[in-house]
Amino acid sequence: MVQKSKTVKKQENKKATKPPVKKVVKKEEDLEPQKDLVFARVKGMRDILPQDSKVWSKIRSKMEEMTKAYGYSYIETPLLESANLFVRSVGKGTDIVEKEMYVFDGVDSAGKVALRPEATASVVRAYIENGLNKTPQPVKVWYEGPMFRREKPQANRYREFHQFGCEVIGDDHNPAMEAELISLAYNFIKDLGIDTIIHLNSIGTVEDREKYLVELVSYLRSKRSYLCVDCKRRINKNSLRVLDCKVRGCQSVIEEAPHIVDWLGDKSKEFFMSVLEYLDELGLPYKLVRGLDYYTDTVFELFPVDKDEEEDGSQSALAAGGRYDALVEHLGGQPTSACGFGVGLERVVNKLKEKSKNGVVEDENDIKIFFAQLGIQAKRRALGIIEELRKDGIFVGHNLAKSALKAQMEIADKMQTSYTLILGQREVQDSTIIIRDMESGIQEIIDQKKLKVRLKKILSQLM
């Protein structure tokens, strides 16, 4: 009988005493992604694609132009704020807070945090926290960026959307500031090519509103059976919101509701009339409307003049704003008057597309010169020339991914450039470059050192 060696016995003993292997169950988030998995956008989100970049650039350029002209400085606040900031500013009983905010558990004892559903509260928080009340007043700021609301996705309505807005804080309750904001919003949209009409109202002071609410609630209770489910709930929670309802069945009740202007005090009426006088002086088109539950005194919305009467008003308003004199104190600051507005940029973009051919917004081509290159040496040299021209304020179109002259000339033709620079192997060796007139086909060869001077002369003639 063959005996096993001591080494073999030790190995067998090790195998016998080896602890059982625990089966590791991977969590769902730890699993490897499937190779055939196709990722898609999260529901309610959207992509802004290259073909839309021109219209977005045009809008952003107009923002900077208008805010500079009116003396507003740029401010940027975080996407993530304390959820209580919006509960306190927007209101606990509102749809935004109850249904639409993205709320998460914070870290570092931050409590509940939320993706901002609007920007005014964030700007006021920044004003208070950073001591901007100690700087020269009023503080006039503008912002642009994404907001988030967990609404039911609809056509042209997204859960992530972009707003451009202006806020004036510490204006000493001056009606001229409302007029300035309305003028800025109106002319910003008008300069983009959209005609609007201003819907205007006043909800007076807090005291005026309290007196009016007693009358309004009494009236709405008497008409409760005619109201939609949401409006029935709003009667006691936020009765002014009923006046903003777009449900057809509620319209007859809203039309017969008491007017808030009949309940304004003398000071509120005088203030509102002052705003209207400014607008009359500016020649801005407006009409008085009821509703527009927001803040204190003046409230306004801008609608396109060609709005379909059947279209939901809440969906067609391009901008909205008003005065919020109580908000700064409500968020922990000193009593400070303020007002502002916000523009829904997706709505502006969609309106521009409606007005354009085939849904594509054409923009003036500011690139008048194209740069074409032939050969490896020319391609290397082209990058240097393009950068030298850029530093001198001369911008040229180009596509270094293309090598064939024909393909590059087709791009130049599509861009509708007036001239094309052509750099080949011979031109690299001779330190020259060809300038071709795209309309006549006439070409000239010049020294590369003289290119800047020649192009500046060409561009001045094209202006």
UniProtKB/TrEMBL annotation:
<keyword id="KW-0067">ATP-binding</keyword>
<comment type="subunit">
    <text>Homodimer.</text>
</comment>
<feature type="binding site">
    <location>
        <position position="149"/>
    </location>
    <ligand>
        <name>L-histidine</name>
    </ligand>
</feature>
<protein>
    <recommendedName>
        <fullName>Histidine--tRNA ligase</fullName>
        <ecNumber>6.1.1.21</ecNumber>
    </recommendedName>
</protein>
<dbReference type="InterPro" id="IPR041715">
    <property type="entry name" value="HisRS-like_core"/>
</dbReference>
<keyword id="KW-0030">Aminoacyl-tRNA synthetase</keyword>
<keyword id="KW-0547">Nucleotide-binding</keyword>
<dbReference type="GO" id="GO:0005737">
    <property type="term" value="C:cytoplasm"/>
</dbReference>
<feature type="binding site">
    <location>
        <begin position="294"/>
        <end position="295"/>
    </location>
    <ligand>
        <name>L-histidine</name>
    </ligand>
</feature>
<dbReference type="InterPro" id="IPR006195">
    <property type="entry name" value="aa-tRNA-synth_II"/>
</dbReference>
<dbReference type="GO" id="GO:0006427">
    <property type="term" value="P:histidyl-tRNA aminoacylation"/>
</dbReference>
<dbReference type="Pfam" id="PF13393">
    <property type="entry name" value="tRNA-synt_His"/>
</dbReference>
<feature type="binding site">
    <location>
        <begin position="118"/>
        <end position="120"/>
    </location>
    <ligand>
        <name>L-histidine</name>
    </ligand>
</feature>
<keyword id="KW-0963">Cytoplasm</keyword>
<feature type="compositionally biased region" description="Basic residues">
    <location>
        <begin position="16"/>
        <end position="25"/>
    </location>
</feature>
<feature type="binding site">
    <location>
        <position position="163"/>
    </location>
    <ligand>
        <name>L-histidine</name>
    </ligand>
</feature>
<comment type="similarity">
    <text>Belongs to the class-II aminoacyl-tRNA synthetase family.</text>
</comment>
<dbReference type="GO" id="GO:0004821">
    <property type="term" value="F:histidine-tRNA ligase activity"/>
</dbReference>
<feature type="region of interest" description="Disordered">
    <location>
        <begin position="1"/>
        <end position="28"/>
    </location>
</feature>
<dbReference type="GO" id="GO:0005524">
    <property type="term" value="F:ATP binding"/>
</dbReference>
<dbReference type="InterPro" id="IPR045864">
    <property type="entry name" value="aa-tRNA-synth_II/BPL/LPL"/>
</dbReference>
<keyword id="KW-0648">Protein biosynthesis</keyword>
<feature type="binding site">
    <location>
        <position position="290"/>
    </location>
    <ligand>
        <name>L-histidine</name>
    </ligand>
</feature>
<dbReference type="Pfam" id="PF03129">
    <property type="entry name" value="HGTP_anticodon"/>
</dbReference>
<dbReference type="InterPro" id="IPR004154">
    <property type="entry name" value="Anticodon-bd"/>
</dbReference>
<dbReference type="InterPro" id="IPR036621">
    <property type="entry name" value="Anticodon-bd_dom_sf"/>
</dbReference>
<keyword id="KW-0436">Ligase</keyword>
<feature type="domain" description="Aminoacyl-transfer RNA synthetases class-II family profile">
    <location>
        <begin position="54"/>
        <end position="349"/>
    </location>
</feature>
<dbReference type="InterPro" id="IPR004516">
    <property type="entry name" value="HisRS/HisZ"/>
</dbReference>
<dbReference type="InterPro" id="IPR015807">
    <property type="entry name" value="His-tRNA-ligase"/>
</dbReference>
<feature type="binding site">
    <location>
        <position position="167"/>
    </location>
    <ligand>
        <name>L-histidine</name>
    </ligand>
</feature>
